[in-house]
Specification:
Layout lengths: L3 H9 L3 H13 L2 E2 H8 L3 H13 L3 E5 L7 E5 L13 E2 L1 H5 L2 H5 L5 E7 L3 H4 L5 E5 H4 L11 H10 L7 E5 L1 H16 L5 E4 L2 H7 L29 H8 L4 E4 L3 H5 L24 E2 L15 H10 L8 E4 L4 H13 L5 E3 L3 H5 L12
Parallel strand pairs: 4-8, 5-6, 5-7, 7-8, 9-10, 9-11, 11-12
Antiparallel strand pairs: 1-3, 2-3
């Protein structure tokens, strides 16, 4: 990890163009070479040289650009852990605020989706965002399971999304339902999908623009690549895990894990299960430990330590679960996208299925 002192020492030995580029990225966040050239008004050649010098001393990292994976996006190498996530799956509020015109355009290359389970969308949403209700649109019959492929394709096409669209998702509750939508997009093979760090509350509480106007986009044809079944766990997978080496990770509250609650805290709509408790042998790491008070994700090192202390390793097979799969999708996102775990599946049936099974093994804490 680079310390502020070492950064200063490295910058002192670099040419002015590199220092200027570094300060520009520090102020504006991740940018492509073209964006850096336009912002700094340096020549393209000088910008390339400045970037190269910064990379050679380890002060820049690079990832594919959000709007065009063929381009490279540059950002500051980690000082506080936040930019060292395994993938570039998060976008920040400032980044989105600077690009609202692109998301409001009828051009399907960029789409913004608010995924929630309440009527908050009608109270005000980010300009250009389409609203998707988690219960009616992102689950199967009776609010359980996933929508089938045809239903998913129809939902996206109706909202002006194509398989080539760059989609940014956000929602309430530190992105509970948006993270579930992200997982669903990945399950059906959508490649360019991202999550707004902090979600709806972070955007609203910091005074970013909202509107009550609903966008009207031209309907498109959408063809899903998936489903990609390795991202999803079923009851049979959980039963096999009980006798195998797969880690079962319960992300619910302590009261639910202990068996003192049979529904999520504060939830008056989700039906209680027949019994409380957890799947035998489960590791317990509440999803809430992965986010800061403002709803944004903890830095890489904090997240890595959280799961290392729980005995998890990046090469482990992991099945995550909660009550109905939305909180576990947050943890799936953290493990898969932010920490780079290769073998993580979301059990979307979760405790609402397991806790209603007859004779299913359970554990409680006295």
């Amino acid at each position: 990890m680079a310390t502020p002192g070492s950064v200063k020492e490295k910058l002192d030995d670099l040419p002015p163009s590199s220092k200027f580029i570094y300060k520009t990225l520090e102020r504006h966040g991740r940018m492509t070479q073209k964006e850096l050239t336009e912002e700094t008004m340096l020549s393209a050649r000088t910008t390339r040289y400045g970037i190269k010098q910064l990379q050679e001393v380890g002060l820049l990292d690079s990832t594919p650009a959000l709007h065009d994976a063929r381009q490279t996006c540059y950002g500051l190498a980690r000082e506080n852990g936040r930019t060292d996530y395994a993938t570039d799956a998060l976008v920040e509020a400032d980044w989105l605020a600077d690009r609202l015109d692109e998301f409001e355009s009828d051009d399907p290359s960029m789409r913004l989706v608010e995924a929630d389970a309440a009527d908050s969308y009608d109270d005000g949403h980010i300009p250009g965002a389409v609203g998707v209700d988690w219960v009616t649109s992102l689950t199967g019959e009776n609010g359980r399971g996933t929508p089938d492929r045809a239903t998913f394709e129809e939902l996206l096409g109706r909202n002006g999304v194509t398989e080539d669209s760059t989609v940014v998702l956000y929602g309430d509750e530190s992105n509970w339902f948006a993270a579930y939508a992200y997982w669903l997009f990945k399950y059906y093979g959508h490649e360019q999908v991202y999550l707004l760090n902090g979600g709806r509350e972070y955007w609203v509480e910091r005074g970013y623009t909202t509107t009550t106007d609903d966008p009207a986009f031209t309907e498109r044809e959408y063809s899903a690549r998936g489903p990609l079944e390795h991202l999803r766990a079923y009851r049979d997978d959980v039963e096999r895990a009980l006798a195998g080496d797969t880690t079962l990770l319960d992300v619910r509250s302590s009261e639910e894990f202990a068996g003192d609650r049979r529904e999520p805290p504060g939830d008056t709509q989700t039906p209680k299960t027949m019994v409380g408790g957890h799947i035998p042998g489960s590791v317990h790491v509440p999803w809430s430990k992965t986010v800061e008070d403002d709803g944004r994700f903890e830095d890489h090192d904090t997240l890595a330590e959280l799961y290392e202390n729980a005995g998890l390793g990046e090469d482990d097979d992991v099945i995550v679960y909660c009550h109905v799969g939305e909180r576990s999708a947050v943890t799936w996102f953290v493990l898969s996208e932010l920490l780079g775990y290769d073998h993580v599946a979301n059990y979307d049936g979760s405790w609402s299925e397991w806790g209603n099974l007859v004779d299913a093994p359970i554990e409680t804490e006295e």
